[in-house]
């Protein structure tokens, strides 16, 4: 009896181990349920993150966060190249294709035009008067104020005007449109170093016509449903600023041969 009891004790021990294993197995079942629930929660978290980012972007202070501007710099070089080619064909209304605005391309286009105005403006002065030539450093702040003003500040004001009239243009769309429209003036600035005043005027007028048609064609879709009077006011404001920019471009930087 004692031997059997001794035999039963290991069985009891093994039995207790089996119970422990069963309890461990049941414990394994619970973590498996938790593990099954965790992937679901992991799947929900990525879905909630964009919403949280959107809430941050649309919040009152979202405009001061980096995440707010990240979508506008998420662009490939192929897309920027395609948009630059469309600028040279100004009658194509598929430029923004309602709508994929970016700020990467416009920033570099505007900066390139500023650089070319500084370099080509001084080069024109050198060609016209090599004996008394001095580098004119005022071209840099003047070019930056003119190009960034017409490429960033004016589009923001224009988008506000369109919004007040009932149109559908955001500031980022307007900046993107005006930024890319300046691409033709990069070519004009480089060619304006040729020392012929009449050729410079032809090239500058070409840049004015190309960029103005490009802006009109691509912005007309946002104002076509407006009353005719409001529509003509918007187009007139754009045209006046384009003329002012053309004259400033020519007279401030390439008027040395006239």
Automatic annotation (TrEMBL):
GO MF terms listed in the record are: small GTPase binding
Entry keyword set: Membrane, Transmembrane, Transmembrane helix
**Ranges of Low complexity compositional bias?**
43-54
- Give the compositionally biased regions (Polar residues): 1-10
BP-aspect Gene Ontology terms: vesicle-mediated transport
Chain ranges passing through the membrane: 107-127, 139-162, 174-192, 198-220, 232-253
Chain residue ranges for the region called Disordered = 1-54
Q: Where in the cell is it found?
A: Golgi apparatus membrane; Membrane
Domain annotation Yip1: ranges = 96-245
Domain of life (superkingdom): Eukaryota
InterPro entries with a match to the protein in the record: Yip1_dom, Yip5/YIPF1/YIPF2
Primary location group: Golgi
Gene Ontology cellular-component terms for this entry are: Golgi membrane
Protein family membership: Belongs to the YIP1 family.
Q: What is this protein called?
A: Protein YIPF
Which organism encodes this protein?
A: Tetrahymena thermophila (strain SB210)
Instruction: Output the lineage of the source organism.
Output: Eukaryota, Sar, Alveolata, Ciliophora, Intramacronucleata
